[in-house]
Write a structure and sequence with these properties.
single chain; 261 residues; mainly beta; 14 strands; disordered N terminus; plasmid; SoxZ_dom; signal
Length: 261
C-alpha cells in the first residue's frame, strides 16, 4: 500500500504544469444559457484577465479521469478571496468552490479533475473587494466521470481517508502537496465485478490550516478526481498543518502534519 500511495503522490508532486496557450475557451451555450447566471449568479460575463488570474491545462487529456489544472496569479495581482472551478459539460458542472486565506496569495494551486466531454474548463476568481474575473481552457477529454475506479472495493475500504503531506521551500514561500486516499465515486461508475452502479460517494468538504490560520477550504462535487491531490504555494507561519475532510457518507478525517513535512 505504501508504494502505491507514494506513486500516486508523485503524480503531481513534480515540476509545476507548463502554461498552455493553445486551448483558449470556446463559445459555450451551456455556459451562456444554463450556468453563468442561473448557477453562478453572474449577471455579466467576468472579464478574462491573465494579469489577475490564469488557468493552465492540457489541450488533450492523457486520462480524462485525472486531468491536471493549475490556477495561478502573477506577483502583485490582487489577492483572491474565493475561486470556483466549473467544467461546462460535466453532469455536475461546479467542480469545486474554494475559500482562500491570505497566505495563499498570489494563488498557485494545482488540482486534478474529471472531464466527461470536450469542454470549457474555467475558474472564476473573486478578488478582495473587486469584481469577479475569469480564466479558462478548452480541454479535449471524454468519459472521465464514468471511468472505472482505479482499485477494487476492498482496497477502497482499507485505505480510505489515508493522507500524506509534503513540503518544499521555494523562495519565501512553501509548496505544500496534500494527498487524500478516497475513491470519490461519481455515481456514474460501475463495479467491475458486479457491474452494478456504484453510488456517489466523495469528499465534499476539505479544510487546510496552518495553526489557526486558514489556508483554504473546499466545497466539492463529483468532478474532483479519485485520490485527490492538492499542490499549492503558501506563505508559512511555522505552525503545523492540519487537515479536516468530510465525505458524503458522513465520514470525517482529521490529521496534523509537521510544518516541515
Amino acid at each position: 500500500m505504501r508504494l502505491a500511495l507514494t506513486a500516486a503522490f508523485l503524480l503531481i508532486a513534480g515540476p509545476a504544469l507548463a502554461q498552455e496557450t493553445g486551448n483558449p475557451l470556446q463559445p459555450s451555450e451551456t455556459w451562456d444559457i444554463d450556468l453563468r447566471e442561473s448557477v453562478l449568479g453572474l449577471e455579466a460575463e467576468p472579464p478574462i484577465d491573465p494579469s489577475i488570474l490564469d488557468l493552465s491545462a492540457p489541450v488533450r487529456a492523457d486520462d480524462a479521469a485525472l486531468v491536471p489544472l493549475r490556477l495561478t496569479q502573477p506577483d502583485g495581482a490582487p489577492a483572491l478571496e474565493a475561486a470556483t472551478v466549473v467544467i461546462d459539460q460535466n453532469p455536475a458542472p461546479v467542480a469545486a468552490e474554494f475559500q482562500l486565506g491570505k497566505a495563499m496569495a498570489p494563488l498557485d494551486m494545482e488540482i486534478r479533475v474529471r472531464v466527461d466531454a470536450y469542454s470549457d474548463v474555467r475558474v472564476i476568481g473573486n478578488p478582495d473587494g473587486d469584481a469577479p474575473v475569469m480564466a479558462g481552457r478548452f480541454i479535449k477529454a471524454s468519459g472521465g466521470c464514468s471511468a472505472p475506479a482505479g482499485k477494487d472495493m476492498a482496497a477502497v475500504a482499507e485505505t480510505m481517508g489515508d493522507m500524506r503531506w509534503k513540503t518544499a521551500v521555494e523562495g519565501d514561500r512553501n509548496i505544500g502537496t496534500l494527498m487524500i486516499r478516497h475513491p470519490n465515486f461519481s455515481g456514474l461508475q460501475r463495479d467491475q465485478v458486479t457491474l452494478l452502479t456504484i453510488p456517489a460517494h466523495f469528499i465534499d468538504t476539505l479544510e487546510v490550516r496552518q495553526g489557526d490560520e486558514m489556508l483554504f477550504t473546499m466545497s466539492a462535487g463529483i468532478s474532483i478526481s479519485e485520490d485527490p491531490v492538492f499542490r499549492f504555494a503558501y506563505t508559512p507561519n511555522g505552525q503545523p498543518i492540519s487537515v479536516h475532510a468530510e465525505d458524503t457518507d458522513g465520514n470525517v478525517w482529521d490529521q496534523t502534519f509537521d510544518a516541515a513535512g
